[in-house]
UniProtKB/TrEMBL annotation:
InterPro entries: Methyltransf_25 (IPR041698), SAM-dependent_MTases_sf (IPR029063). The lineage of its organism: Bacteria, Pseudomonadati, Pseudomonadota, Alphaproteobacteria, Rhodobacterales. This is Methyltransferase domain-containing protein. Keywords: Methyltransferase, Transferase. Signal peptide: none annotated. GO terms for biological process: methylation. GO terms for molecular function: methyltransferase activity. It comes from Ruegeria faecimaris. It comes from the Bacteria. Residues 60-144 form the Methyltransferase domain. Pfam families: Methyltransf_25 (PF13649).
Length: 210
C-alpha cells in the first residue's frame, strides 16, 4: 500500500482490474468526505437530475456506483429500486451504508454483469466512463441488462469521450439499438473546486434502448 493517499491523478492512471481494486479499496473510506467534498464534485447530481428529467424510472442500475453518491441523489428524487454495481467491494460497502440500494453487485464491467437480461428500466453512471476506467466497449453489456425503452444517463469525461472514440460507438448503436441520443455537457466540479481538474467537463450520454 502506498503512503500517498489516492487521488484523481492516480485514478486516471489506472490500468488493470487489480489496480482499480487496490486503489479504490484504499480510497473508499475517504472518497465522500475527502475527494468529493474538497473538489465540490457535482457530476453525480447532474447525472441523476438528467435521468429524472428524461422521465427515467426504476428499477435502475448504478454502474460504477462507487460509494453511492449518484444513487443517493436518485433516491432523494424518488427513484427506485436502485442496484449498485462496481469492481470494488470496499466502495460497494460504503454505498450500502447509505441504505438506498436494493442490491450490490461486485463485477468487472468489462467482463459483463451477472444479472439476467432485461432487468432494468434505467441505467445511470457518473464518473466511471473516464480516464483509466471504462471505455465504449462496456456499452453492449449495459444494453443487455436493460429493457426495451430503458432510459440511459451515462456521464463520460469529455476528453475521454474524444480519445476513446465514444462518438463512433454511440453512432453505431444509433443504427437500431438506441434512440433519442443527446449529449448535454456539464461541469464535473463546482465553484469551490481548487484542483487542476476544476474546469473539466463531461458529456451525459442520454438515450433509450430500442
Ligand atoms: C471515480 S469513481 C465514481 C464513483 C461514483 N459513481 C461517483 O460518481 O462518485 C469510479 C468507480 O468505477 C469503479 N470501476 C472502475 N473500473 C471498473 C470496472 N472495470 N468495472 C466496474 N467498476 C469499475 C471504481 O471501483 C469506482 O468505484
Amino acid at each position: 500500500m502506498s503512503t500517498k493517499s489516492p487521488d484523481l491523478h492516480a485514478a486516471y492512471a489506472l490500468d488493470s482490474p487489480e489496480d482499480h481494486k487496490r486503489l479504490y479499496a484504499e480510497w473508499a473510506g475517504d472518497y465522500d468526505d475527502g475527494f468529493a467534498a474538497r473538489e465540490d464534485y457535482q457530476l453525480h447530481i447532474h447525472t441523476a437530475r438528467a435521468f429524472v428529467s428524461a422521465g427515467g424510472q426504476g428499477p435502475v442500475l448504478d454502474v460504477g456506483a462507487g460509494t453511492g453518491l449518484c444513487g443517493a441523489v436518485l433516491a432523494g428524487l424518488g427513484v427506485g429500486p436502485i442496484d449498485a454495481t462496481d469492481i470494488s467491494a470496499e466502495m460497494l460497502d460504503q454505498a450500502l451504508r447509505k441504505d438506498i440500494y436494493r442490491d450490490a453487485i461486485e463485477a468487472d464491467l468489462n467482463q459483463g454483469i451477472p444479472v439476467p437480461r432485461d432487468s432494468y428500466s434505467g441505467i445511470v453512471s457518473s464518473g466511471t466512463f473516464t480516464h483509466g476506467h471504462l471505455g465504449p466497449e462496456a456499452l453492449p453489456a449495459l444494453l443487455n441488462v436493460a429493457r426495451t425503452g430503458a432510459q440511459f444517463a451515462l456521464s463520460i469525461n469529455a476528453k475521454h469521450y474524444e480519445s476513446l472514440g465514444f462518438a463512433d460507438a454511440l453512432h453505431q448503436l444509433a443504427h437500431g439499438q438506441i434512440q433519442n441520443l443527446s449529449l448535454p455537457e456539464v461541469r464535473i466540479y463546482g465553484d469551490l473546486a481548487a484542483g487542476p481538474n476544476r474546469d473539466d467537463t463531461a458529456l451525459i450520454a442520454m438515450f433509450e434502448k430500442i
